[in-house]
Design goal:
Two copies of one chain form a homodimer. The first copy, chain A, is an alpha+beta fold and 161 residues long. The first copy, chain A, is built from four helices and five strands. The first copy, chain A, is 29% helix and 32% strand. The longest helix of chain A has 25 residues. Chain A is elongated. β2 of chain A pairs antiparallel with β2 of chain B, so a sheet runs across the interface.
Chain lengths: 161, 161
């Protein structure tokens, strides 16, 4: 992770894309969201979704996986250039999560993130807060998920105690 | 699921409780949130969390599993009494998700839900919208997760077309 001071509002990150296979959809849903339209093709066909589709929590969790991978690549690139790597702190949470369209079998979702706000933390000296808007878009260009999240990021210069 | 008309604001549901084992924490995080403090005890000890703890998406996904199980029990009870079962429609999303405390190994989280708003759907005749506040509380009585979600529920009497 770059330091808080090096992150600008308006920056966009392409987190990559994932194709949701029937196997992956059923594996997640069997464990965490075993509703018929997430685990059984025939039942899904009869449901309001019309076909097997991913649990919304699955679509969201894949975003997390891609974000972690993105940050790992960024950390590796910083280290390769001999630059220091900032710590990413805990996330206080999320807001406005919207599941806008179902994610069906073999849909490919492209995840992207945009920085919409940065501010120094009052409660944690040495840390800043970054607010990001996260989106997933399918291969037809339709948004399927959108949410806003907040994370603590280490500051480059610690304020005087 | 009971029908929309049978659900009242203020109703509370106890969804049950789950103990987060190290094995389950690592299994989820390896797949979806492979940050050191979710997959490696030694690295977690050195992190700001101080010990291995669950991915926030894991804590949220377990809520979904308990909700589905609760609804299944309710459907079974309705059928056993010979009563009709209402369909649960898609969820448009949730808001104000807060991870309030880390969920550490062997913490037992009790999940509960309270109906905070009901209204007929304008966009989908025959359906109502239920807004619920969901919480997870650990064995020390500390809230660890809180969010508000919305779901479509079938109405008992379809309005005239």
């Amino acid at each position: 992770m770059r330091f808080f001071e090096d992150i600008a509002v308006g920056e966009k990150f392409d987190l990559g894309r994932v194709t949701f296979t029937a196997e992956a959809i059923k594996a997640f849903a069997t464990r965490f969201d075993p509703q018929p339209f997430h685990i059984d093709e025939a039942a899904a066909k009869r449901s309001h979704f019309g076909a097997l589709c991913a649990s919304g929590w699955h679509t969201a969790s894949v975003w997390m996986r891609l974000l972690v991978a993105y940050q790992r690549r960024e950390d590796d690139a910083l280290r390769a250039r001999g630059e220091p790597v900032a710590a990413l702190g805990p996330s206080p949470g999320f807001r406005e999560l919207k599941w806008l369209k179902p994610v069906y079998v073999d849909d490919t979702i492209t995840y992207a993130t945009e920085v919409i706000e940065t501010r120094a933390s009052n409660s944690r000296p040495g840390w800043g807060l970054m607010t990001i808007r996260n989106t997933g878009t399918n291969q037809r260009g339709e948004p399927v998920i959108s949410f806003v999240s907040v994370a603590f990021i280490e500051r480059r210069k610690k304020p005087a105690p």
